């Protein structure tokens, strides 16, 4: 039976809902502004430290990797120890790590600080989504709130590149990390006042062995993808480590049953399973594009860092405009059209970027970015809503962790594989065309899974035991 602790309210939950939502949205802004500005600053950071593309990928993937592998523990800790407590811990760690990033003396220190920021995000994001699931139990109302929450991804993409480009031009790359510090402090302070505490420790404990195996599996996969071109033998060893770790992880979790870090019976829920797979596919190509396009434009001498940030605006602007209405559109068009159709549109956007890679103007890429933003605005909120709505609120932290694991695994592997493909094809127009074509095809494959999961959700209510 689901068990939720008595809420420790500073006042009525209804009275504070709007301020609580604003606080949860700040968590999204923290994580996504950071990602957006770091992608833009890859070239200046490389020049500052004389770093190659492999090290620069780790500046991006060091964050993504730790974020992905620690999300499982972040979600479980939120359910066990308190969702507000874990949210506040994540905000504090992220803010402190960002300060270290800004004053890093070497590329190694920067990568380590980025990894620590990933730990903060891994505590922050699943607790944010879990709090939303608990505070808004009604599916219709939650769909509206999720649309607003997801729109902050697009808002961060709009703010991040533009502000980041201006900061890079005026103050240099350290300033892009300092910009998230006041947002983190605001989230930390507001959470203590306006977010109620909730937890569900019944029959569960921390699964350290499974966490280590999960980290080895995800870490081995990402490391192999990054090193496959420069060190294929080492990459093969990393793949073997990942496979062995995954097999052992499943065995450990099956033995622990419902007290596991990841209760495997949650994947018997077809709606949840489909949302997870579709989300991973969605972010694979999208994050690859965010990594490669600014790098391509700057290497080709087409755009400065500031202009590259502005050139990413069509995706962010369309995402922000569409996402708040995703709940309403889902009721009108149906969830299969929103999730499956949205991911197809993202794929078409990436294929448009690939088709225009040799074009002297950036117009084809701008069209592709706008299509990508449209698809993200349609699909992001509904996919998150399907995942957390498919399970009981007692498992909100675990479900939100898993959907964020899927999102970040897709992002990490997408940056790694598409970045390696770009470099392997010699960069330039040929490299961009090959990477974006692969990303687009992955999106279209994920769309079929998203469509089937959403269609199944219409005819079957998930059992409470999940």
Written account of the structure:
This protein has about 475 residues and is mainly alpha-helical. It folds into 2 domains: about 15-195 and about 260-455, Up-down Bundle (Growth Hormone, Chain: A); about 205-260. About 80% of the residues lie in helices and about 0% in strands. It contains 18 helices and no strands. It has helices spanning about 15-40, 40-50, 55-80, 85-100, 105-135, 140-170, 175-180, 180-195, 210-225, 230-255, 270-300, 305-310, 315-320, 325-335, 335-355, 365-390, 395-425, 430-455. α5 (about 105-135) runs antiparallel to α17.
Task: Note the main attributes of this structure.
0% strand; disordered C terminus; mainly alpha; 2 domains; 466 residues; Growth Hormone, Chain: A
Average of per-residue pLDDT values: 82
Please, what is the CATH homologous superfamily of the largest domain? MFS general substrate transporter like domains
How does the helix and strand content classify structurally? mainly alpha
Based on the coordinates given, report the CATH architecture of the largest domain. Up-down Bundle
Portion in strands: under 5%
């Amino acid at each position: 039976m689901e068990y939720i602790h008595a809420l420790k309210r500073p006042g009525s939950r209804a009275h504070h809902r709007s301020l609580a939502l604003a606080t949860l949205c700040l968590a999204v802004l923290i994580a996504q502004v950071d990602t957006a500005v770091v992608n833009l600053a890859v070239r200046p950071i490389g020049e500052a430290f004389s770093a190659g593309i492999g090290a620069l990928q780790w500046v991006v993937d060091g964050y993504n990797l730790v974020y992905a592998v620690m999300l499982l523990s972040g979600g479980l800790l939120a359910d066990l120890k308190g969702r507000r407590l874990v949210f506040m811990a994540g905000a504090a760690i992220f803010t402190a790590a960002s300060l270290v990033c800004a004053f890093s003396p070497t590329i190694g220190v920067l990568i380590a600080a980025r990894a620590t920021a990933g730990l903060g995000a891994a505590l922050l994001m699943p607790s944010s989504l879990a709090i939303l699931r608990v505070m808004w139990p009604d599916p219709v109302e939650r769909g509206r709130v999720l649309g607003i929450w997801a729109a902050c991804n697009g808002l961060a993409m709009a703010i991040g590149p533009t502000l980041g480009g201006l900061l890079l031009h005026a103050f240099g790359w350290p300033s892009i990390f300092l910009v998230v510090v006041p947002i983190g402090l605001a989230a930390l302070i507001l959470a203590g006042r306006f977010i109620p505490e909730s937890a569900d420790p019944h029959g569960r404990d921390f699964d350290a062995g499974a966490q280590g195996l999960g980290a080895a599996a995800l870490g081995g996969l990402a490391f192999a993808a990054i090193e496959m071109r420069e060190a294929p033998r080492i990459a093969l060893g990393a793949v073997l480590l990942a496979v062995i770790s995954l097999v052992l992880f499943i065995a450990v979790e099956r033995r622990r049953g419902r007290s596991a870090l990841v209760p495997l019976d949650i994947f018997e829920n077809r709606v949840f399973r489909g949302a997870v797979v579709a989300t991973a596919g969605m972010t694979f190509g999208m994050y690859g594009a965010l990594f490669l396009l600014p790098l391509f434009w700057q290497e080709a001498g087409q755009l400065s860092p500031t202009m590259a940030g502005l050139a990413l605006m069509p995706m962010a602007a369309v995402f922000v405009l569409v996402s708040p209405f995703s709940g309403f559109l889902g009721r009108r068009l149906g969830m299969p059209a929103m999730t499956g159709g949205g991911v197809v549109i993202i794929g078409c956007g990436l294929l448009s970027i690939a088709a225009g890679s040799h074009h002297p103007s950036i117009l084809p890429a701008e069209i592709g970015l706008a299509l990508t933003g449209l698809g993200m605005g349609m699909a992001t909120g509904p996919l998150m809503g399907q995942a957390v709505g498919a399970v009981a609120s007692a498992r909100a932290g675990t479900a939100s962790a898993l959907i964020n694991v899927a999102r970040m695994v897709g992002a990490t592997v997408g940056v790694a594989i598409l970045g390696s493909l770009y470099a392997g094809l010699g960069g330039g127009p040929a490299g961009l065309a090959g990477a974006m074509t692969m990303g687009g095809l992955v999106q279209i494959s994920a769309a079929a899974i998203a469509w089937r999961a959403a269609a199944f959700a219409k005819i079957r209510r998930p059992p409470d035991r999940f």
